[in-house]
Each structure stands twice: as structure tokens, then as C-alpha cells.
């Protein structure tokens, strides 16, 4: 239902939105790319739903299989649609939607063949407002947070363009691909952390929740730091993927510099999804959204000032705000945990009070 509502809205507003994102002279190509993605938005959204349903049944391998199937098919179909069918840039999103649809059909097939624990049946479906409210209690703040972050990104891109033009925007945005890859362990573990801690909190097993949370944080930070070091050292080689053509070769030194500056805040950036997972498992997703709002308002203020200095100042502004935001999210998660624990902690008779 949501995808059916959003699709015509996004199709109508695609050109103004792409212009705000800094498409510039590539507006027509960007518009051609966006049309198939928006038309196939229901399949893309369904992919996350199916993967989430499988994870909820502890069918993690099947969940991963669905996602990998979509990714591998995407890699295969990209050149087919782009070159064989001569669709050009439009072929890439067509391949993405097609591959996602096929991968979704695998998950649907497992349910229809009754190979899963859940037996979905529309004939027995009853609208349950209480269940929907439970889902939206966590989902709505997260959706609001993501919408707000992406809206702020449009404004941040404008600051970058005003400071360094379209080339500056390319230098600023492309290194994020590697930074996002380096934070995959934190994002993936945070997704798994929510149901584990939620069960522990439901049982009032706070020691178990604390043990899981801190062991996951330690392990994740080690991975993120090691990946950050690898990216920092290999920055020059990594950005070659975007600077191999003669027209973009001159961007390579600045792009490598941006990537290395971003690496400085990687451990703190990794703390954001972990802190958010703790707040969500405690049914305090609103606090996570508030933290994102504060962090992004800080980005706007810092970028507005840094854009009057230089593009490098914008890079450092991002790193500084993420250090502050990651620290804030971690401390907020710890505070929420201790507050929840203190509400249900009943001292044993004769036990000494807190000192």
C-alpha cells in the first residue's frame, strides 16, 4: 500500500528531487535511471519484508540466500540489459528490479510450498490494530529518521556544490561507498541485536542483555577499526575505480584525502546503529530518531560554516559531527538500559541499599 502511494508521487517529483540532489547536466540520465526504480519500488520494499520474515523464523541462511540471489542476478543481468538490449543507463535499474523480483519469488515459493514455520493464509486474515500498532511503534520513528536524514542530505549536497561545484560533490560523495562497506558489520550486527536483546528484556534478564550488547560492541568495533585501517592505507587504490577516465583522473588526490578523513570517524559511526538497536529493543525508537535529528541539525550548522572555507573543511565537519553523534548514541543507549533496569530492579530483603 505504501509503495503504491509513493510510486506516482516519486515519478511526478523525480526531476525536482534529482535537481536538488545536484544532478545538474546529468538530470535527463538520472531521470531515466529513476523511473524503473520507482516503478519497481514495491518489489524492492518486498525484498526487505521477505528477508525480515525469514530472519524472524530464525531461517537466517534462507534470508541470506534471497539477498544473495538478488545481488548475483543483478550482476548478471546488468550487462544484458545495458548492452545486449541497448537500454543504456536505464538498463541498470531494470536489471535491479528484475533480479529483486526473481529473488522475492524464491522466498514466496518457500511459504507457498509450506516449507516455513508460518503458514500465511489470506482467508484467515483479520485486521489487528494492536499488532499493527506494535509494529508502527518501532517502524514509524525509524521511517521518520530515514526520511529526515535523506532530506537533510539534499541540503548538505547543496552546501557542497556551493563550495566546490559538481566536481566537489563527486569528491565528497563517492568515498562514502567504501565507508558504508566498512560499517556493514555494525549495521548487520545491529539488526540481529534487536530481537536478541528484546527477548532478554522481555524476560527481565538484564545481565544477559548487557553481556550480549557489550560483547557485540567489542567484536564489532574491532572489525570496523581493522576495516578502517585497511581503507585508510589503500585509499589511493580504492578511489581509482571512480577516477580511471582522463576527465576524472584529476579528482583522485582529493577523493583519497576525503576517504582518509572519513576513516577517522569510522568507529564512532559504527556506534550509531548499535546504540539505535539498544534503544529500539527497549521500545525507545523515538530516542533514536531524536538523536538522528540532533546529529543532522549539527551537520547543517557545521556544513553551512565549513562551506565558506573549503571543501576539506566540509570533510572534517562530517568527521567531527559523526564522532559527537556516535558518542551521544552510545551513551544514550547505556542510559536507556540502566533506566529500564532500575525500574524493575527489586532489592532482596535485607540487602544493602545502593551506595
Describe, in plain words, how this protein is organized in 3D.
It is a single chain. The chain is mainly alpha-helical. It has 2 domains: 1-125, no CATH class; 128-344, no CATH class. Helices cover 79% and strands 0% of the residues. The chain has 14 helices and no strands. Helix 3 runs parallel beside helix 5, helix 4 runs antiparallel to helix 5 and helix 8 runs parallel beside helix 12. It is globular. The relative contact order is 0.08. Mean pLDDT is 87; it is low at 346-355.
Number of domains: 2
User: How would you sum up the major sheet?
Assistant: none
User: What is the number of beta strands?
Assistant: 0
- Kindly report the average pLDDT value: 87
Give unreliable regions as ranges.
346-355
N-to-C SSE string, H for helix and E for strand: HHHHHHHHHHHHHH
What is the rounded distance between the termini?
Answer: 55 Å
Structural class: mainly alpha
Strand content: under 5%
Number of helices: 14
Helix content: over 70%
Mass-distribution shape: globular
Radius of gyration: 23 Å
Amino acid at each position: 500500500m505504501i509503495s503504491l502511494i509513493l510510486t506516482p508521487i516519486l515519478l511526478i517529483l523525480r526531476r525536482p528531487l534529482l535537481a536538488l540532489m545536484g544532478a545538474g547536466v546529468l538530470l535527463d540520465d538520472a531521470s531515466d535511471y529513476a523511473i524503473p526504480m520507482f516503478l519497481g519500488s514495491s518489489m524492492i520494499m518486498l525484498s526487505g519484508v521477505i528477508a525480515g520474515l525469514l530472519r524472524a523464523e530464525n531461517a537466517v541462511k534462507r534470508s541470506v540466500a534471497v539477498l544473495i540471489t538478488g545481488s548475483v542476478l543483478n550482476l548478471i543481468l546488468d550487462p544484458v540489459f545495458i548492452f545486449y538490449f541497448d537500454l543504456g543507463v536505464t538498463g541498470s535499474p531494470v536489471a535491479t528490479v528484475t533480479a529483486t523480483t526473481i529473488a522475492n519469488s524464491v522466498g514466496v515459493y518457500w511459504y507457498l510450498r509450506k516449507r516455513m514455520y508460518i503458514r500465511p493464509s489470506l482467508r484467515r486474515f483479520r485486521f489487528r490494530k494492536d499488532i499493527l500498532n506494535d509494529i508502527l511503534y518501532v517502524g514509524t520513528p525509524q521511517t521518520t529518521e530515514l526520511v529526515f536524514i535523506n532530506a537533510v542530505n539534499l541540503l548538505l549536497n547543496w552546501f557542497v556544490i556551493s563550495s566546490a561545484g559538481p566536481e566537489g560533490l563527486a569528491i565528497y560523495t563517492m568515498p562514502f561507498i567504501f565507508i558504508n562497506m566498512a560499517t556493514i558489520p555494525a549495521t548487520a550486527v545491529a539488526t540481529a541485536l534487536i530481537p536478541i536483546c528484546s527477548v532478554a528484556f522481555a524476560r527481565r534478564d538484564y545481565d544477559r542483555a548487557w553481556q550480549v550488547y557489550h560483547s557485540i560492541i567489542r567484536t564489532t568495533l574491532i572489525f570496523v577499526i581493522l576495516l578502517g585501517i585497511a581503507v585508510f592505507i589503500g585509499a589511493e587504490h580504492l578511489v581509482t575505480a571512480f577516477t580511471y577516465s582522463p576527465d576524472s583522473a584529476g579528482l583522485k588526490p582529493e577523493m583519497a584525502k576525503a576517504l582518509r578523513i572519513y576513516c577517522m570517524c569510522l568507529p564512532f559511526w559504527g556506534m550509531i546503529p548499535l546504540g539505535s538497536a539498544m534503544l529500539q529493543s527497549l521500545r525507545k525508537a523515538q530516542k533514536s530518531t531524536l538523536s538522528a535529528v540532533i546529529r543532522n541539525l549539527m551537520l547543517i550548522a557545521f556544513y553551512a560554516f565549513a562551506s565558506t572555507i573549503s571543501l576539506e573543511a566540509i570533510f572534517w565537519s562530517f568527521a567531527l559531527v559523526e564522532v559527537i553523534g556516535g558518542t551521544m548514541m552510545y551513551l544514550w543507549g547505556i542510559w536507556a538500559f540502566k533506566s529500564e533496569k532500575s525500574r524493575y530492579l527489586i532489592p532482596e530483603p535485607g540487602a544493602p541499599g545502593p551506595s
